[in-house]
Each structure stands twice: as C-alpha cells, then as structure tokens.
Specification:
single chain; 4-stranded antiparallel β-sheet; 3-stranded antiparallel β-sheet; alpha+beta; 9 strands
Length: 162
Amino acid sequence: MGLGIREAARVASRLRSLLVAGTVAAVAVVPSAAVATPGSGVSGTVLAQGTSDGKLRIKPPKGDTDVVVRTITIAPGGSTGWHHHPGQLVAVVQAGTLTRTLDDCSVEVTSAGAAFVEASGGKHVHVGRNLGTEPVVLYVTYLLPKGAPLSIDEPAPACAQG
C-alpha cells in the first residue's frame, strides 16, 4: 500500500529539513575554497581613537559630499570662536580636554580618548575652548556639502553675551 497524500507531504518535508540540516553541517565542517589571504606591502597608523557615549548619529549631506580629515590643536587658554559647520563632523579628542559651549549656553566637556559628533547648520552654533594647561589635540572628519567651508563664524548667542 502506498502513502496517502498528506503522509507523503510530511515525509517530503522531513526529508527537505534533513537535507538542509546536513548541507549546513557539511558547509560548516568543510574548509572554504575562498580562504582569506594575508596582505603584503601595506602599513597603517592609527592617528587617534575615541569612544562615544552611546550611538553616533551621523547624517551625511544630500548630494556630493566633501570628506575632510584634519588635526586641530588648541593651545591652553585658546578658543575656536563662535561658529557652526555646514555639515556634520566626527571628532576624537586625542589629548587634553575640550570644553564646548553650545547655542543654549549648555557646556559639554570631552576628555582625551572620547569621540563626539557635532551637528550641522546655523542652529548649532558653538565655541570650543581649552581651559586646561596642556594643548587640546583633535582629529576631526568633516562631512560637508561639496564646496562648503569647514566652518562659518557666528556671533555669540544672547545667553553668552553677558
């Protein structure tokens, strides 16, 4: 006697499951033909490394984007002046402690080994200061609309004019 249609479908389903499981197991055990190869003639230097508090929310500009990487050194007592950026930037504080005053006069302090993102646009005016005794060294990557300047000078907000 043959199997009924339902029973035959169950047997076929079990066979497919066993076949899939066996294939997965075989692939996991057999060495891959596409094994990675070691590089040669390549060197790299980590310039700075920092850890952010939570997620980095990066939103590149629409359209063509200029990516600029630079170091910034702020001497003890030095200041960037009030400004904003036409595009976001990601910064790593490599040395010293950076004190930023934002457009609402709130203060953010970032020490060596930390990373942060600065928002873009005229609504995000800020100033960076070195209130410490050693230079602040930043490694900054800018994501700018094509052809835009790195920053635009701004007057201090009302809360900072006192």
